[in-house]
Automatic annotation (TrEMBL):
A UniProt-annotated Pfam family: MMR_HSR1
CP-type G domain span: 14-179
Identification of the protein by name: Ribosome biogenesis GTPase A
Taxonomic placement: Bacteria, Bacillati, Bacillota, Bacilli, Bacillales
Keywords in alphabetical order: Cytoplasm, GTP-binding, Nucleotide-binding
Species the sequence originates in: Exiguobacterium undae
Keyword Cytoplasm: yes
Function recorded in the entry: Required for a late step of 50S ribosomal subunit assembly. Has GTPase activity.
PROSITE patterns: G_CP (PS51721)
InterPro entries listed in its UniProt record: G_CP_dom, GTP-bd, GTP-bd_ortho_bundle_sf, GTP-bd_ribosome_bgen, GTPase_MTG1, P-loop_NTPase
Length: 288
């Protein structure tokens, strides 16, 4: 589901998350492991200020494992508690309860010193659309829950869900935040991975962007998938060669739109292999 974010929606989304924060102990911030920075809300630090936060790199099954490891090391060095999971296939989810316990340890220790037993940790899942919030809630609950509130402003009565993986309760509606799409590069990265809908940006432009990314970051995977001898040329020439190889040709011309759609579909369904479209080094230079 794609949400068109307007200032009013953003303000409302922020208010809703702020309200929910009052009810919980720990924030679970879901991020796409293929885009650990671009898939974060630009104001998440401010919005969740004061609450212990676990960053969860989801969709790690689709991301480049070596880079996921680098991202986790860099974030941990910055004092961030971060884990990597694959919510769709139920992998690594036990780490969420462990992480929440880590974040609550001091508070729980103090309570025990006073002879009080800590109650179950209460958590809220937050993230931009399409990072896997609903999938994660369902996995943690061990059953399918209708997550109707998956739009800012659509509210329903909130309920606590007992997690299967540990003594923990989860708010059944996630906090939805907007992405940093005003930055063009971030917008294209989100579009290439399918986090924002194709009709917001031109499909050929997204495909050309994806090719430029792939030919620099994963040239061998790109060559292997589309039987190309080389990918050194312009992105448009690579796209044309891909279309030709797939037989997407009418009256002697490559059908660029069809080729673009196919390429993006294959990128988003891991046919081109596991990819991560931003590195720690690149991000460091952007934020300096
Ligand atoms: P939400 O908008 O944040 O609630 O995202 P959804 O839970 O609806 O997930 C968006 C899409 O990502 C769905 O097609 C999910 O099946 C898929 N998805 C969610 N988590 C994972 C994951 O860990 N790995 C993979 N490969 N796909 C996932």
């Amino acid at each position: 589901m794609t949400i068109q974010w307007f200032p009013g929606h953003m303000a409302k989304a922020r208010r809703e998350v702020t309200e929910k924060l009052k009810l919980i102990d720990v924030v679970i911030e879901l991020v796409d492991a293929r885009l650990p920075m671009s898939s974060r809300n630009p104001m998440v630090e401010q919005i969740t200020a004061g609450k212990p936060r676990l960053i969860v790199l989801n969709k790690s099954d689709m991301a480049d494992g070596r880079l996921t490891e680098q991202w986790m090391q860099a974030l941990r060095k910055d004092g961030v508690d971060v884990i990597a999971v694959d919510a769709k296939h139920n992998k690594g989810l036990g780490q969420i309860h462990e992480g929440a316990l880590r974040l609550m340890k001091d508070k729980h220790d103090r309570m025990r010193e006073k002879g009080r037993n800590p109650s179950a940790i209460r958590a809220l899942i937050i993230g931009i659309p399409n990072v896997g919030k609903s999938t994660l809630i369902n996995r943690l609950a061990g059953r399918n829950i209708a997550i109707t509130g998956d739009r800012p402003g659509v509210t329903k009565r909130q309920q606590w869900i007992k997690m299967k993986t540990g003594e923990m309760e989860l708010l059944d509606t996630p906090g939805i935040l907007w992405p940093k799409f005003d930055d063009q590069l971030v917008g294209y990265r989100l579009a290439a991975t399918g986090a924002i809908k194709d009709d917001i940006l031109n499909i050929d432009d997204i495909a050309l962007f994806a090719i430029r990314e792939l030919k620099t970051r994963y040239p061998e995977q790109l060559k292997a998938r589309y039987r190309l001898n080389e990918v050194a040329g312009e992105a448009v020439d690579v796209l044309e060669a891909i279309g030709k190889n797939r037989g997407f040709v009418t009256s002697g011309y490559v059908d660029f739109e069809r080729t673009s759609e196919m390429l993006l579909h294959e990128l988003r369904t891991e046919k081109i292999g596991r990819v991560t479209l931003e590195t720690v080094e690149e991000w460091a230079t952007v934020t300096e």
